[in-house]
Amino acid sequence: xxxxxxxxxxxxxxxxxxxxxxxxxxxxxxxxxxxxxxxxxxxxxxxxxxxxxxxxxxxxxxxxxxxxxxxxxxxxxxxxxxxxxxxxxxxxxxxxxxxxxxxxxxxxxxxxxxxxxxxxxxxxxxxxxxxxxxxxxxxxxxxxxxxxxxxxxxxxxxxxxxxxxxxxxxxxxxxxxxxxxxxxxxxxxxxxxxxxxxxxxxxxxxxxxxxxxxxxxxxxxxxx
Length: 224
Hints:
Layout: E1 3-5, E2 8-13, E3 17-22, H1 38-50, E4 59-60, E5 69-75, H2 78-89, E6 94-102, E7 109-118, E8 121-124, E9 127-141, E10 144-153, H3 160-167, E11 190-198, E12 205-209, H4 215-218
Parallel strand pairs: 5-11
Antiparallel strand pairs: 1-2, 2-3, 3-5, 4-5, 6-10, 6-11, 7-8, 7-9, 9-10, 11-12
């Protein structure tokens, strides 16, 4: 049974891992402002649930953008976090996304670009960014033609999905930062709906998904 705390769904928990669904609009980690963030909310949850004294350890091993929701895993011990980070470095950590992009894409494909991070933007650069995508369907929302795509991320570059589809001339719906110019008034239509990785202690392959029925897709699901 999934537990929900302050809009955060706890999908899985053991002595080593915590897997959750991050809501849209919540930062993965604190920055310079004083707004809530996922990491600290989960630390509070652990502290209260297990009545832990002092500071609570929870390792952030990957991130999602503030306006992107979806499934994430955290390490509950330094050993687990270290091993999860190693899994990510060695490309044994797999992620899939769902996105609604502007315009009509007819065929499945792959995108390869060279990117860098500059002024909190993804720009052309020297690091390779790769992804595969499959077209689920095309439809019309209002007066706009859009495409629902399933994305398999092959590298983990900053904002790479957002940048690569913008370069393809199919920016993600709602992603005004990367060139969306449509009229659909919605947060960025992107969600991480699947992760898979070996358990840091047992080595068992674990897979987790979150339903697309989240804040962003609820607003437009009737069009699909």
